[in-house]
Amino acid sequence: MTVELSAHAKLTLSLRVTGVRPDGYHLLESEMVTLDLADTLVVDEAGAGGLEVVADWPGASGTRHRADVGPDAANLVTRALEAVGRTAHVRLVKRIPPGAGLGGGSADAAAVLRWAGCTDLAAAARLGADVPFCLSGGRARVTGIGDRVAPLPYEARSFLLVLPPFGVDTGSVYRAWDELRAAGRLPAPGTVVNELEAAAVHVEPRLRGWKDALEDATGLGARLAGSGSTWFVAVPSGRPGPDVPDELTVEGRRAPLVGARTWPADR
Fold first, then answer.
1. What is the pTM of this model?
2. Is residue 131 located within the same domain as residue 180?
3. Domain residues for 17?
4. I need a labelling partner for 91 at 20 to 30 A (CA). Which of 38, 73, 168, 205 fits?
5. Whether 18 and 142 share a structural domain
């Protein structure tokens, strides 16, 4: 039997680092929403296993290397199948760019868990910090190491995202946050919407140019999605102004502007 699953991106609207556990895991408090941007997984239960990945995210080119989403053994789809004790061949059409801070891998894993009938947030958390929220979806306050998900009322909202032509490694951002905190070089707590922004820019200085370009194009304040690389602005009217372009160019490199809307929790 073959089934087709949707795996929706998540957008972190706010993020505060509230502490660091003795084991090195960072404690967070954030608000997350699900977006209508989604990967597609075609799961063949009769298949002999294996993972086929198709790069179809905005701005992806045919020359993109398969390594963009990591080796099969490390991919969250493979790990989620192992977690639920299932075997299947999966064709994964990636529309959520890797390394974009939009939880694409976590959404894929959550889709596999739902397919297998697993609703255990603790099991989801063992796969990754964003998997529990992606398993629940909608809008929620997420705390702890991502394992505590408190649903919030759904709000219909629209955003405009710029997807730079590079990703940012989440682990590197958290290590940079630790270093900047030890050096006293972080903004005061509560003075920024996303407390990982300074660390992300420290890891990847090119992020600054894309933030500036998005703000110049829209006249709106841009926020970083999670640990990056996506920047986004809220669009109160539901659509950007007529003068907003379809893509931005920074230092000779182009990136698409993508409209996205919130998506309610799966029922």
1. 0.92
2. no
3. 2-151
4. 168
5. yes
